[in-house]
Specification:
By secondary structure, this protein is mainly alpha-helical. The protein has 20 helices and no strands. About 75% of the residues lie in helices and about 0% in strands. The C terminus is likely disordered.
Length: about 550
């Protein structure tokens, strides 16, 4: 019965994450169709993505702490149910502004369900089973990145982009039923139920400032108050947030967690790596549709090998990292993924999928699968079980904030590169009125193609060349960030000291103790010398320390 409950709890956590992942990946495929229907240009496309990431990244710390205070089941259920309701609102949005507002609400509810999903796993599984459980969660939740682009692409081509939001509803209902059956309620102490709402507000507006500045800069320039005021004010608010977290008795970000080496290094690595990943997926889907001429469903199919590799390898990589330690996985994995991203520099306006894109995706996906489960397990294992929700929230927040800032920043960079290249290419071409209109429209998109029959072949080639160059600049930035994550993992992550299992010992007299336990006193608990991969290693080491 206990094993069945654990399996159902894992399925519930997977389904909750599946709902969020399905929506996010389907939206990426639908961005060109949303722009065509509701307008907004590249800035509108960025905000459809970034409004979600902004709310998710700034509130996910509160979501993690709420799970620790009120119980992961309650918070997880509210997050899933709210996500479903707002998904319905997104499906009927009459304008780009309403859609962006609803996406922000989706992010707020996603901030409740995302950290609570991992907290459900921590609550359901004993320490020595969590690495494999997290690997399963990573693999199965990753199916959303296959179903999302495929279902999204099919629905966009066959019916409407609006159905990509409505399709969440059945999964929401199934998830809520599983939670009610498999995840036990946990009592909370109302006397300690304090939530750091001021910290949440400071984080939200602190992150919103630089994002707004980076998105508005290509339109109004750096000298505009619309750019420099939020650009300076946002980081100032983040500084106030850190000062507030040091003083408040109930911080949503316990800064003491960053004194633990693997937790700190793992989160810095997360920031670099997920910044690169956010850029890759955002730009690749737009490039395939708006420059290479793929339909939405074709773009969805194009990304499928990445998720298949993740599904096949993630659980196995989690187990191997439990056995051998996370350092090499968290170092060589991102470096391999960076090679795959760099191979996307070979893409041009005519993309042969099997020779140009597929090899890059396979190498990228093998590196990513080698990294994600070990990284998640290493970060979570450095926190006590009572802080599992907030530890998960911190790591998820950093991943989302990294994508948020990276997408906003790369939008400004590639827009500048596109305009510069396009101006150079058009400098000796006389433009007709139709060509001027088409070029102005292309500038608002940044990654674009124009019909040579309307504007002439020289203008079409100029826009095409500028788009490819801008894409290459963005992909180069992405590859550099992912590679930086790998170097940080190799340099900063420490493997835990291995623990002897009873079945490996004659008589079991050293079972559960570090391998050098028979040679002298056992050192103090591990966080000072490097965080363990799983909570199992930490727990065994602490027990051994107390025994001596």
């Amino acid at each position: 019965m206990a094993d069945r409950r654990k399996r159902l709890a894992l399925v519930a956590a997977i389904m909750g994450s599946f709902v969020a992942g399905l929506d996010a990946t389907a939206v990426n495929v639908a961005l060109p169709a949303i722009r065509s229907d509701l307008g907004g240009g590249l800035a509108g496309q960025q905000w459809v993505s970034n409004a979600y990431l902004l709310a998710l990244g700034s509130l996910i710390l509160v979501g993690g702490s709420l799970g620790d205070v009120f119980g992961e089941r309650r918070v997880f259920s509210i997050g899933v149910a709210g996500f479903g309701v707002v998904s319905l609102l997104c499906s009927i949005a009459p304008s780009i502004e309403v859609l962006i507002a609803c996406r922000a609400l989706q992010g707020a509810f996603g901030a409740l369900l995302t950290p609570s999903a991992l907290a459900v796993i921590v609550a359901a599984f004993p320490p020595d089973e969590r690495g494999a459980a997290i690997g399963s969660w990573t693999a199965w939740a990753g199916i959303a990145t296959v179903v999302g682009p495929l279902a999204g692409g099919f629905l966009v081509d066959a019916v409407s982009w609006r159905l990509i939001f409505a399709v969440n509803i059945p999964f929401v209902v199934i998830t809520l039923l599983l939670v009610s059956r498999a995840v036990p309620a946990r009592a909370h102490d109302a006397a300690q139920a304090r939530v750091d709402w001021l910290g949440a507000a400071l984080t939200f507006f602190g992150l919103a400032g630089p994002v707004l500045a980076l998105i508005r800069e290509p339109v109004v320039g750096w000298s505009s108050p619309e750019v420099w005021l939020p650009g300076l004010g946002g980081p100032a608010l983040l500084g106030v947030f850190l000062a507030h977290e040091r003083r408040t008795p109930a911080p949503m970000l316990p800064l003491g967690l960053f004194k633990r080496r693997n937790f700190s290094v793992g989160n810095v690595q997360t920031f670099a790596m997920y910044g690169g990943l956010g850029i890759t997926f955002f730009l690749l889907v737009l490039f395939l549709q708006e420059v290479a001429g793929y339909r939405a469903l074709q773009a969805g199919f194009a990304l499928m090998p990445s998720t298949i590799v993740m599904f096949v390898l993630s659980k196995r990589m989690g187990r191997l990292a439990d056995r051998f330690g996370p350092r090499l996985f968290m170092g060589l994995g991102p470096l391999t993924a960076a090679v795959g991203v760099a191979l996307m520099l070979r893409l041009h306006s005519h993309v042969n999928y099997f020779t140009d894109l597929l090899p890059a995706l396979l190498i990228f996906s093998i590196g990513l699968a080698s990294t994600v489960a070990p990284l998640t397990a290493a970060v979570l294992s450095d926190a006590d079980e009572s802080n599992a929700g907030i530890a998960s929230g911190v790591n998820n927040a950093i991943a989302r904030v990294a994508s948020l800032l990276a997408i906003a920043a790369v939008g400004a960079v590639i827009s500048a590169q596109f305009n510069s290249t396009l101006n150079h290419r058009l400098s000796e071409i006389r433009l007709s009125r139709a060509a001027l209109t088409a070029v102005a429209h292309a500038r608002s998109q940044t990654l674009a193609r124009v019909d040579p029959a309307r504007v002439g072949r020289p203008v079409s080639l100029a826009v095409q060349s500028a788009s490819v160059h801008a894409f290459h600049v963005g992909i180069g930035i992405s590859a550099s960030l992912v590679a930086l994550g790998g170097l940080l993992g190799l340099a900063g992550i420490r493997n835990p000291r291995r623990v002897v299992r009873s079945e490996d010992c004659a008589g079991g007299q050293l079972a559960g103790q570090p391998l050098d336990a028979g040679r002298g006193p056992v050192p103090a608990p591990l966080p000072q010398s490097g965080a363990p991969v799983t909570a199992a290693a930490a727990s065994s080491a602490r027990e051994a320390s107390r025994a001596t």
